[in-house]
Each structure stands twice: as structure tokens, then as C-alpha cells.
Amino acid sequence: MIRSLVITPNPESSAAGEVANSSGNGRILRRNLTQTSLEAYLAEGSTLWIDITTPEDEEIRWLETWLQLSPTVVADLLREDRRPTLLVYPRYLFLSLFQPHAQSNMLVGKEIHCIIGEHYFITVRKADASALEEAYDRVIQNPDSWQRGVAYFLYLTAQHIIDTYYPLLDQISNQLNDLEKKLLSDSNDKQAQKSVYRIKQHLIGLRQMIAPQREVLSNLIGEQRVSSNSDIRDLFRHLYERLLGIYDVIDSQRDLTNNVLDIIANQQSIKMGEAVNRLTIISMVFLPFTFFIGLFDSSFFTVRESVILPINGWSISIAIILLMLLSILMMGMVFRRRGWI
Question: What global pTM score does this model have?
Fold first, then answer.
């Protein structure tokens, strides 16, 4: 689907099928023009913003023929899972930015392609890449922003894309804090480790999106189409600094993720140590039993004649049991004094 905004220098009657709003200062903002009208207005030197949502092959081919796009750009428009990139051509710039989108347990990047010419700004995206909607509506509500040129439209687009990272980072930060509190209060949370690893994968995905976009904006600031206007150049520098801040937040949250994993590992080590201690105590309890039974069994020596002790068998059994209990009590006292139990 193609929707468009066109600013015309002089008030004219709206063509059939067009929506026009007066913006004052002898200009009219027209919306949703046909492809033929868009070609005509661009030939007259009017400024255009064309937003193509979920593009079809015919629409991409129309852009290729109309703007004489490079085959590399056309291939990028038709493909997905590309890295953020900046391609510079004599008549236009091609720029790809990524909007993060949490999908079930995965984090994916929604591509927003931008083509910036002298009098036109074209965006190509999927319908779920909604970050562009606010920028598009902002231009509709404030037609005077057209005075700042198409570079300002690119700034608005990049600004709203960057804004989508903050809620996701806040959500991850809250999840990590909650997990840390749960682990400190309840060490039996078996799902905590899976949640932490999933968050860590999200942070890695965010970092892979932010790092190349940071380089793209850095290179974009040096382009003549952007740096010719000092105000627009300062706006892009501000966006670059925001990306640096987001990158630092991602690193700090990765450190927090590692801290949570360390807590889980320490708790598992403590549980293992407690299990070993319990098994050791149980084995030590049965050690006197084994010793005295083996001693009084007299199986380790033989005599020629059988020996009959002048003691009742019940007395010997009670004496052996008392010796066992006494040895257990003495072992318990020694363990407690040394702090083993």
C-alpha cells in the first residue's frame, strides 16, 4: 500500500482522489496521490514523502523505474534480515534502520528502509514496523516542518525508531530486578535460569541492532545532504549520542544479567554442598555401627577352642548399643564445635 504527502508551493484546486490541507504561507499539503500525480509533482520540484507499507513487487519495480534505483537497493528492499546500512549514490541516499520487536520468546528487528533524495523521502517497511506512524502523523499535523527539508523527515523517522528501544530496555531492567529479588528470597525458583538466558539473548540481539545503527548515523552526519544544515546536523548528533547511551545501558544490563547468573550458580553450589554435608553426616552416623559390629563379630581372628563369655547376651547387646550412641553423641559434639554442622 502506498500513501503519500506532497507539499505544493502554490494553492491549487485538489485533483480527483486527492486530499489537500491548507498549511498557510501559500502552500498546500496533499495526501495519498496516485503514482502518476507523484511523478508529476516531483518533476515540478515539489517535496514528497512516500510511505510504502508491505510493498508488492510492482510497487518496488515502479520505484526502481521512476527513481532509477540501483539493483543493490532494489535487492535490499525485497529482502529481509539485512544489517543496518548506509549506501550513498549521486542522486540519493539509501538507509536501513531497525525497530526492535519482541515476538514470543524471541527478539527480531523490523526493517525500515529510507531513500532520501533532494526533494523526496521514501520509506519502505512492513505493516508491523509501527515506529514510523508517529513521525508520519507529526508531519501531517505540522505542515510547517516541510520548511526544514527531507533530512528532517529522516531525523523524525530515526528518532521514533530509537524511542522504541527505551520501553524494551525498561522492561528488561524490571525483569532482571524482579528475578534478582526472587532469587535472594527464594532459591527454589527453577525457571529463573531460563528467564535470565532468554533476557541475555534479547540483550545480544539489541546490541547487534544498535552497534551498526550507531555507525550508520555517524557516517550519515558527514554526508553533505545532512551536514549542509547545521540545525539538522546537530539533531543527528543528538540521535547518535542517544544510541551511545542505549549501548551503555545494554552493557550495564548484560553485567546485571551476569550477576544474576552468578547468584544462581552460587545457590546451586550451596545446594550441592549442603547435599554433600548431609550425605557425609549420614555416613558418619553409620560408621560407629559398622565399627562396633565388626569388632564384636570377631570375624577377624580365630581360636582353637570356642570362647564363652560369662556375660548375658542381652547385656552385651545393650552395651554395644550404648557404645554406638555414645560415639554418635561425641561425634556430634566435635562437629558442632568445629562448625561442620
Answer: 0.71
